[in-house]
User: What shape does this take?
Amino acid sequence: MSGAALGIEIVVVFFLALFLLQRYGDFKKQQRMVLFGTLLAWYLCFLIVFILPLDVSTGSQVITKVWSEITSHKTLILHVCELIFCPFFQNTQSVCYKPWSYIPDGIMPVFWRVVYWTSQCLTWLLLPFMQSYARSGGFSITGKIKTALIENAIYYGTYLLIFGSLLIYVAVHFQWHLSWYELQTIGITAANTWGLFLLVLLLGYGLVEIPRSYWEVSRQGHLLIKTYFKAAKLMTEKADSEENLEDVMEEVRKINESIKYNHPLRKNVDTILRKCPVEYQEKMGRNIDDCEDFDDKQNTHPTERSLSKLHKQVIYAVQRHNRTRVQWQILLEQAFHLEDVAKNETSTSRQFVHSFAPPEPVGWFRRYIYTPSVEWYWECLLKQWFYRVLSVVLSLFSMAVVWSECTFFSTRPVLSLFAVFIQLAERDYNYLYIEMACFITIFFLCTCVYSTVFRIRVFNYYYLASHHQTDAYSLQFSGMLFCRLTPPLCLNFLGLIHMDSAISHQAKEQTAYTSIMGSMRVLSFIANGFYIYYPMLIVILCIATYFSLGARCLNLLGFQQFMGDNEMTSDLIDEGKELLQRERRKRQRIEDGENRRREWRERYAQSDEIAARNRMSMSEMKETNYGETLNSNTDRQAKYTRSSSQTGRDSIELLQDAEPLDFNDETLNDDPLQSEPGRHTGGRYLSMSSSRSRIFDDV
Assistant: This one.
């Protein structure tokens, strides 16, 4: 079992990162370099979060030392167990067991060193360059690299300036000797300081917003009104994206007509056309005239730089248009579902009825387990209470985090709640409890921080959209944020549970993670000042988030936010409601049309089948009558002795269809029997013939 827990978590975390990337990214359309860089960044950050509880469970690494002592000196096993591991079994039999998550000595330091420095190289060097490379509008690899280097020159220069300032500060203190270890610690401190500054902002927002979001989900009416508000805003953005796409396509059309097939930049125009939607490609393909040659005397042709700029605009416009279109469809489904819930709450049958049929066939889960009755009880009764209880639990957890962030520097007495829990578990050497408590705590902290990263939106510059609608720039930017926020988040967590001696000032052996981070005492004003007192600002941020001060400020600046007591919000809610009613009527007409066509197809299929059966039966009856007629004529010919010609005429007349009594077609000349003399040429029956003298001629 040695190292098995580490291996299992490494595999599980990889699939977790892959699942999230599949949800937000697009494996089919986006570049492999973008997907690999984002996946690696997310994977390393999640790995730090999941593996850190295993490192904490080893505590001061006494487990490793003691078990190495046990394996080399088997005679001291009982004594070690009595003195170190099992002091609470003084009056009973001493039991010493190996922890299930025991990791051999020397693995964790190497593991943390590889994971940390790889993530730092990604976030400070590779991802910014890859971000500019992916967003560049260049048509060649060389052009994209050149653009990326120019964009990142200021970016890297700022970091070098900050690092140089810290280096000068350390150099002026002659009591310090600038060794490689101290330079490494200065770099780590600078990165963690930047990350902690942003971490407190995101954490203060998430600690309040996550419990409140679950509480709002339990209020179906409030959630429906907020969905109307989102629909109005999203429709405005959708119309804006369509207009922007039309403008960009118009520029592409002009350039496509001006640059002919033999122009040197024609291949760049073809590259731009391949990025356009299919309907625009067809329109531009019909209007182009490839027979006209390129005239070098004209000076109205664009340059390669302008084409690169247009290429970048096309990529952005198409991505934004597709994203708003998909988000509009998703929002419609959510709004229709909430309206269905509001209608079904008063249902006496307790069967959940949907307004529209599901687009996909019903699977076995909805057929046998999640039946309409079960769905009604969950959507109309149990769901709201479940989310209310969950919101209360998360609120209590948030208050514990805020209290611990303000008091974790106090070691005597211990005021941090999480430090109290871990120390109680250490007394009993309950390693499983230590790991579970650490995992739940750090998982909650990461959820508050990472969910804020997924929710925030910086105009259209950074936005993580689900259902494969996130662009390459936002994916890599999120990877950069994760790599910069995770190390200070873990150090803050170790400070909450008093496992970081630089903050708690306790003479304890450090975890393998803190040994890799280095001693923060090299920069005392950061270790004793910024790392301790800056997290207290989380109280102010939580209060500001609770009263929605940020949303109110954005609303005053012209960015419409959901404010219940605002006239503009009411107007947007009414507009969104009208939009959804219009979409509901449109979808209802489409569904009614489909139902009518289906009914007509089924009805005509039955009628065609019946008609085919009738035709078959009629043909069989005609064949039977024809055979019987022939037999009767043969018998009549054998019984009576008529002339051969007259008998033939009578047989043919018997085979003809019966005509009405008033039938008189004097122009009928198709009968070959009419050429004989004495035969009436009219279209009458024999009983209606005008010649009465020849009735008994054959007797």
Q: What stands out?
A: The chain is about 70% helix and 0% strand. The longest strand covers residues 457-458. The two ends are 120 Å apart (CA to CA). Residues 567-639 form the longest helix (73 residues).
